[in-house]
Amino acid sequence: MNEQRAHLAPPRSDRVPGAPRYLLYSPLRPLARFLIRRRYAVRVHGGGQVPPTGPVIYASNHVGVIDGPLLAIFGPRPAHALTKVEMFRGLLGRFLWWSGQIPLDRFHTDPRAVKTCLRALRSGRAIGIYPEGSRGPGDLERFHRGAAYLALVSGAPVVPVTMLGSREPGGTSGSLPRRGAAIDMIFGEVWRTDAVPWPRTREQVEKASLLLREHMLVQLDRARASTGRELPGPLPPTDVDPDPATGVTDEGAP
Fold first, then answer.
1. How many CB atoms lie within 10 A of CB 191?
2. Is residue 254 in a domain?
3. What is the percent of the chain with per-residue pLDDT over 70, rounded to a whole number?
4. Has residue 21 been placed in a domain?
């Protein structure tokens, strides 16, 4: 299926504007790497796991406020990351849009965000998604269905990403690591599923989500073992980022 035909498959992605690419592919990206490495020791592991061409879905755990910028700047391929719509306000919002990020309404069905992601994937680009939804322990206990759904629609491979060190133990959801801290980004073994034609059922999406979660848990354990590092633990009890009560767990849908 060529690109134009792919955009016409349901859900159609030819009627939404594509997320901008300029800042993702500009000289600012290597400059940003240089500047960040003056503050943190960012170490990228397993970058060769990422397919060099074609659609790719980065699926990452989410522990700290800088996870998104780190993935956008240090990922082997630039990614259009789903970002909560609350961030798209004022100058920051304009910067996020022009840097290729995709606004997502987490509390309501958001077909525009889905179609914008599919437009990027069907054009052979990479997208980034955080199945946990909001920042937290990074242990994948909470796991939303979006990554698996996009893989089922597009057939794009999913590359698990484990972030370690982007938030220190006891830190809040908005805290930064101390200057000079080591941050590890581990790209794990690719997970693949065949594209499923429309209409896709809730049961198909849930089964794929559970399989993807199990795969990511294995990659998380491998990342911890290979680096000798641990997750930062839970956020302080008073630090609560609202998140929809949806997703899959060991017991299935809540």
1. 22
2. no
3. 97
4. no
Picking from 166, 144, 156, 5, the residue whose alpha carbon sits closest to that of residue 80 is 156
Which of 149, 77, 87, 86 has the alpha carbon at shortest distance from 114? 149
Which positions are catalytic? 62
H-assigned helices in the chain: 3-8, 22-25, 28-37, 67-74, 90-98, 111-122, 146-154, 202-227
Distance between CA 188 and CA 215 in Å, rounded? 10
**Is the pLDDT higher at 246 or at 219?**
219
Residue 209's domain comprises 32-166+178-227
Question: How many angstroms separate the CA atoms of 205 and 147, rounded?
Answer: 10
Number of domains in the chain: 1
Average pLDDT over residues 110-132: 95
Give the sign of the dihedral formed by CA 143, CA 147, CA 153, CA 155: negative
Q: Report the alpha-carbon distance of residue 239 to residue 119 in Å, rounded.
A: 35
Interatomic CA distance for residues 186 and 222, integer angstroms? 9
Instruction: Give pTM, 2 decimals.
Output: 0.94
